[in-house]
Amino acid sequence: MQLLVNFGIPVLLVLMGGTAGGRYGQQFLGSILGLILALIYLSFIRRADLLMMKGSKAIKKGNIEEGVSLYEKAINRKGLNPDYLIYAPYVFLRYGYEEKCASAINKAEEIKALTAYQRKNLLTTKGLYLWKTGNTEEAEKVFFDAHNTGADSQTYSHVGFILLENKKYDEAYEFNKEAMEYNEDDISIMDNMALSHYHRGEIEEALSIYDKIMEKGTHFPVVYYNYALALIAKGDTEKAKEQLNKALTFKFSHIAAVSKEEIASKLKELGE
């Protein structure tokens, strides 16, 4: 839909110009006029969206600072598509710009009319921000708000995760069972369920789930870390080391549930 708005309207302007010019035998000149109007539209009316697209392109190329700077310029301009304004704080948080994230969330919350989907996404990012900045109890409330706004695998995984973070193990266990009924193939939900078993001392049940996850494969470092915890509880330290070392081969973002330092510390505890 966003591509249709960004590029469909300029194309329509060019076609309309050509059609109008054709009525007077000047189709080429009409098309040129339409093209000029399209460029004006893209340069001024959709300038904020174009900045976001340039920012996304820069980030994709690995130019994070440039991309973040472009995002920041975009959200401070009028006319930015609400979906972009809701997406920007997540990107800021992903790359460790917590203050920019908080500011962008505040801007997005000023939007008067949000769809349920947009509100859910904004609440999810806000919950992640609160968790990363140490306000886990408030994060739990916000994640539940997101879940109640539009339950899906993502909201189930976030709520199940934060309940475990807040050491509400019994509540987490029951919630994660419900999440498994909703989607037993989602890696994050499976990890939450396995971790719930781990905290209940049900190590074999946890390992059984991790075996299934490993069959599927995952790029989340925290899953290998949690798997290692269950292996350590079983007494299989060598396999635990393998999983921890595997975790270190993946990329880490600021919102990863475990850091490289934590994994390295755990390996050191195990004598490696």
What does the secondary structure layout of this molecule look like, with pairings?
Elements: H1 2-22, H2 27-45, H3 47-60, H4 64-75, H5 82-94, H6 98-109, H7 116-132, H8 136-149, H9 153-165, H10 169-182, H11 187-199, H12 203-216, H13 221-234, H14 237-247, H15 260-269
Task: Write down the overall mean pLDDT.
Answer: 87
CATH fold group of the domain at 49-150:
Serine Threonine Protein Phosphatase 5, Tetratricopeptide repeat
For the biggest sheet, the summary is: none
Report, as a whole number of angstroms, the end-to-end distance. 51 Å
The CATH architecture of the domain at 49-150 can be named as Alpha Horseshoe
CATH homologous superfamily (4th level) name of the domain at 49-150: Tetratricopeptide repeat domain
Outline the low-pLDDT stretches: 1-7
What is the 3D form?
Answer: globular
Which structural class matches the secondary elements?
mainly alpha
Query: Helix tally?
Result: 15
In what range is the share of β-strand residues?
under 5%
Number of strands: 0
CATH class of the domain at 49-150: Mainly Alpha
Approximately how much helix is present in the residues?
over 70%
- Alpha-carbon Rg, integer: 24 Å
SSE order, as H and E?
Answer: HHHHHHHHHHHHHHH
